[in-house]
Design brief:
about 260 residues; alpha/beta; TIM Barrel; eight-stranded parallel barrel; two-stranded antiparallel ribbon; 9 helices; 10 strands; about 15% strand; globular
């Protein structure tokens, strides 16, 4: 049984691909920092982690060895915390690179940005093979959708059986294309409208950039979605103060919504 067969109600995303300690001194970069943060977040109520690894220079990496090391340490220190790895390209990794890291690691779960996995919407052979092998290896894929257009493309691919209709999961990203990456609660509305009108059986979650993160997550949860919180998207608490750690962000969300 895959622990990601359903989207965890409160996943923590502690670092992401782009931010550094210049943005926040407590952003976890090293494996030991990520593991310690994961432990603290689990104790505050997070029930999964969306994991990124960084290289020696602190840059985003899809290094297989680093991922295996992180997963191993998490299993030792926080064995009850399910781990989802990211395949985020950040402009440097190809679809082949993204697929390779998943196939070599065989994680419980992986997130895949649809527009990165299939930059050419007409060339679906590689993606179709990847989704098939993921099901065979019991890897739960969560599809990252940055816009309603992404959702429409996703639905088209599902209907045309490029993406198998099995344990479909999506994450709606709010604020990705807004000025200074600042989301608002209204950003969720078009996703929900499209979601309800076409395929209601897809399990969905939300993450939100910027200071409105808390309000966006509260709204998403009230509508039946799952939530992802953390420094990857935002450093601010609901009252406008800067959180000291990811665990503080998790704690605030736990207090505001019944996860």
């Amino acid at each position: 049984m895959n622990r990601f067969s359903n989207i965890p109600s409160l996943m923590v995303a502690p670092n992401g691909a782009r931010k550094s300690k210049k943005d926040h001194p407590n952003l976890p970069i090293t494996i030991s920092e990520i593991v310690e943060e994961a432990k603290n977040c689990f104790q505050k109520g997070a029930n999964a982690i969306h994991a990124h690894v960084r290289d020696q220079e602190g840059n985003h990496s899809l290094d297989i060895g680093l991922y295996k090391e992180l997963i191993k340490e998490l299993k030792i220190k926080v064995p009850d915390l399910p781990v989802q790895i990211t395949t985020e390209a950040v402009g440097k990794y190809s679809p082949e690179d993204q697929i390779n890291v998943v196939e070599k690691i065989i994680p419980e779960a992986a997130s895949v940005a649809l527009i990165e996995m299939m930059p050419d919407k007409k060339d679906t052979k590689l993606a179709k093979k990847f989704y098939k092998s993921s099901i065979e290896s019991n890897i739960q894929i969560q599809h990252i959708l940055y816009s309603v257009n992404d959702l429409r493309v996703f639905i088209h691919l599902v209907k045309n059986k490029i993406i198998p209709q099995q344990n479909l999961q999506v994450l709606y990203v709010l604020g990705r294309y807004k000025k200074s990456f600042q989301s608002s609660t209204n950003d969720l509305d078009p996703f929900i409208l499209e979601h309800k009108s076409i395929l209601t059986f897809i399990e969905w979650g939300v993450c939100a950039f910027g200071k409105a993160e808390t309000d966006c997550l509260i709204k998403a949860f009230s509508l039946g979605g799952k939530v992802r919180v953390g420094f990857e998207n935002n450093f601010y608490n609901k009252d406008g103060s800067i959180a000291e750690t990811n665990a503080d962000r998790v704690s605030e969300i736990v207090k505001l919504i019944d996860v």
